[in-house]
Design a protein that fits this description.
The chain contains 23 helices and 20 strands. By secondary structure, the protein is an alpha/beta fold. The strands form four sheets. The protein has a seven-stranded parallel β-sheet with strand order 10-11-9-12-13-8-14, with helices on both faces. The chain has a six-stranded parallel β-sheet with strand order 15-20-19-16-18-17, sandwiched between helices. The protein has a five-stranded mixed barrel with strand order 2-3-4-6-5. The longest helix is centred in the middle third of the chain and has 25 residues. 43% of the residues are buried.
Length: 705
């Protein structure tokens, strides 16, 4: 496997000095391979040269001719100069102007042959001119060396790739660097894509695909190029996905070989124990997910499974029953939540469900005192505590388990990759169940969780009713406040959510602290209004939430600290202020705090004008559906994969050519082909070595979940 040409550092390319190399590195471009896998932003067909006499104002024109004259001229603006050239072909002449580019006097000279591509326009008394165009000087017919070195133009006279500027590296420079990089590649280039796939799909070879992706053959459809649908582009995109998916499949295969001593068994005794703790009848979706999870727990390799379910779908009871299977087999389980509020809620719920069993449940968060923490840690290490619920405190080095067989990670996108992997490493390769109420679109699940199996709970438990969502302008605030009074009059409670804790001079948003006081004194003086936000101490937050859950608080003013997991069935009204500033996923999570009981619930999204078209689309999507999976797909379309989780710590891979929304079909193909070939041990050793090299360079931090 010779990949040396592709691994050539970019600083060895002609024209890439220290400054340009540093700018390229900032964009993640270190090697020739990195550069060639960076697609152009778009393509322009500059191959159809037209007579100068036919150029019309307002059009993008591609012309070629001889430079009759060229020079630099001063303008009325101090320090601002124009470089202009008069270009002639057989049909006529045109003035070409480059604003404030004095260096061109050493580049463009009379009697040169030049190709120009730019916009023609009428410029005052100067008449028609082409302003600030891209250009290329053609080698003289007598200059054999130059003609051999550059047989075709790079910047004009062809279909031209247009790249995103990278610091001091312009699109023209990148075009030259890419051309040099392609020249370094041997004809027989190592190819990680299976040959049978290349033949079946009708794709070109790797070297040809890379060349045609950047410098397409004449006649290639410009539309297909700009939709990234040509065979060459799709072959490169597929390789990007295939290498990543092969790495995930290899990791999955390696994990399957290391599990010892933690295999669970399910018999009538375990089934009876599960039935004894069930507080209600499981839905078909819950039963199906539980069956998949328990089947994994009985295998000899560790489970890596993602459990997806919409807000309120009943994931927690499924996870608890899985934990019960582990505990009935003599093992321990851990349940990790992203916030203290959610961890404490899970602890109360789980402790209540397990109150009639022999199993001991403990809570471990940052609020546990040092005096209580020391004996608790000892109990966990001895195995006296069977199930531990906690926050990120569970991944601290001091926490040791005797026999951790199941690690349940709730709201997995809130945890960093390293935190998730550290928890899993505390056991002897325990089963890992990752849960999320933020449904993940299929394409993201195949990348962020590609080494995991996926279970989905569709629908809501019996008795749950869809939440009615209204989009309301700030100018109709009186109607919103009337809804609060009506809800309280019926014995219900309301949330009012603000995006900030305190007033900010930079951002004109209503802040939770100021508005809580305003609502309590000026709007609802006869109601009990309380404030909750993330800067409060743990004890203070817990006291407010307990009072709200008990019904002694009518209106809870809060920041998004209540976004995940807070469960107060009597709360039936959710008001989100400045809803235009929130993402779709966050809005859906906030809406999920109501509709958790038998009463009809409403979510009011209050927006302030002016609002962007994207904000309008987000709120429209919220009003149209309660389905979190539909919301997730719409969110992905609006924001793109890089921002879907709001953090790079989510583990989303930095793919080079593939786009998760545009290229979903190729991602699915790569996932299936990589898994099949790895599972069948049909991945050739050179390809496996290459995949591992790429993973070490690009995806080294991608870990459990």
């Amino acid at each position: 496997m010779d990949t040396a040409p592709l691994q050539t550092p970019l600083q060895f390319l002609k024209g890439v000095g220290p400054r340009k190399a540093a700018d390229l590195r900032k964009a993640g471009l270190h090697t020739v391979e990195d550069l060639l896998f960076r697609f152009p932003r778009r393509y322009e067909d500059r191959s159809r040269l037209q007579p100068i006499a036919s150029v019309k104002p307002g059009q993008m024109a591609a012309v070629a001719g001889e430079v009759l004259s060229a020079g630099l001229a001063a303008t009325r603006r101090p320090g601002f100069k124009l470089f202009s050239a008069l270009v002639q072909d057989a049909s006529g002449q045109v003035q070409v102007v480059w604003p404030n580019q004095a260096f061109l006097r050493d580049v463009i000279r009379p009697h040169q042959q030049i190709v120009i591509f730019g916009r023609a326009e009428i410029w005052g008394t100067r008449g028609l001119q082409i302003t600030d165009p891209e250009f290329e000087i053609l080698p003289a017919a007598t200059d054999a060396d130059a003609a051999d070195a550059m047989p075709a133009t790079l910047h004009t006279g062809r279909i031209v790739p247009v790249y995103e500027r990278t610091g001091s590296v312009t699109t023209n420079m990148q075009r030259r660097f890419v051309h040099q990089a392609l020249e370094l590649l041997p004809a027989a280039l190592f190819d990680p894509v299976p040959a049978d796939l290349t033949v079946r799909e009708g794709w070109p070879s790797r070297r040809t695909a890379l060349a045609q992706t950047h410098f397409p053959d004449a006649g290639t459809s410009e539309s297909d190029l700009n939709r990234f649908r040509t065979p060459a582009q799709r072959r490169v995109i597929f390789e990007d996905f295939f290498v990543f998916q092969a790495g995930l499949a290899l990791r999955r295969q390696q994990n399957a070989a290391v599990r010892k001593g933690l295999v669970c068994r399910v018999d009538d005794r375990v089934r009876a124990a599960a039935r004894a703790v069930l507080p209600f009848k499981l839905t078909d979706g819950q039963k199906g997910a539980l069956a998949e999870i328990v089947a994994d727990m009985q295998r000899e390799w560790p489970m890596q499974r993602l459990l997806q379910g919409d807000v309120g779908a009943g994931k927690t009871i499924v996870a608890l029953l899985a934990a019960l299977v582990a505990m009935e087999n003599g093992f321990q389980a851990a349940f990790m939540a992203p916030t203290e509020i959610l961890a404490e809620q899970h602890y109360r719920t789980i402790a209540r469900w397990l109150s009639g069993t022999r199993f001991k449940v403990a809570l471990l968060t940052g609020r546990v005192s040092k005096a209580a923490r020391r004996p608790l840690m000892a109990e966990i290490e001895r195995g006296d505590v069977h199930l531990v619920v906690g926050t990120h405190a569970l991944v601290q080095e001091a926490v040791q388990f005797q026999a951790l067989a199941l690690a349940v990670i709730d709201e997995q996108h809130r945890f960093g990759v390293i935190q998730r992997a550290t928890l899993a490493a505390k056991g002897l390769h325990p089963d890992v169940l990752v849960m999320t109420a933020t449904p993940i679109p299929r394409t993201l699940a195949l990348t962020e969780c590609g080494d995991m199996e996926v279970s989905v709970i569709r629908g809501l438990p019996p008795g749950r009713r869809p939440v009615h969502t209204r989009v309301t302008p700030d100018s109709r605030r009186d109607e919103v406040y009337a809804l609060v009074r009506a809800a309280v009059a019926e014995g219900r409670q309301a949330y009012v959510i603000y995006p900030l804790v305190e007033e900010s001079e930079k951002v004109d948003l209503k802040a939770a602290t100021a508005m809580a006081e305003h609502l309590a004194t000026a709007v609802f003086p006869d109601l009990t209004v309380a404030l909750l936000h993330g800067r409060m101490k743990g004890d203070e937050k817990a006291a407010v939430m307990q009072a709200f859950a008990a019904g002694s608080i009518h209106v809870l003013v809060s920041t998004t600290v209540v976004e995940v997991g807070v469960d107060v069935p009597n709360a039936t009204l959710m008001i989100v202020e400045h809803a235009e500033r929130f993402g779709l996923s966050q809005l859906h999570q906030l809406r999920g705090r109501v509709g958790r009981g038998a009463h009809a619930s409403t979510c009011v999204l209050v927006y302030q004008a002016p609002w962007s078209e994207e904000a309008r689309e987000r709120l429209k999507a919220m009003a149209e559906t309660n389905d979190g999976f539909v919301i997730a797909e719409r969110d992905l379309q609006l924001r793109g994969p890089g921002d879907f989780f709001g953090t790079r710590q989510s583990g989303l891979p930095q793919l080079r050519a593939g786009d998760l929304t545009r290229d979903a079909d190729l991602l699915e193909l790569a996932y299936n082909e990589a898994r099949r070939r790895v599972d069948d041990h049909a991945l050739p050793a050179p390809v496996r070595d290459y995949v591992q090299q790429v993973w070490q360079r690009q995806f080294g931090l991608i870990a459990v979940g």
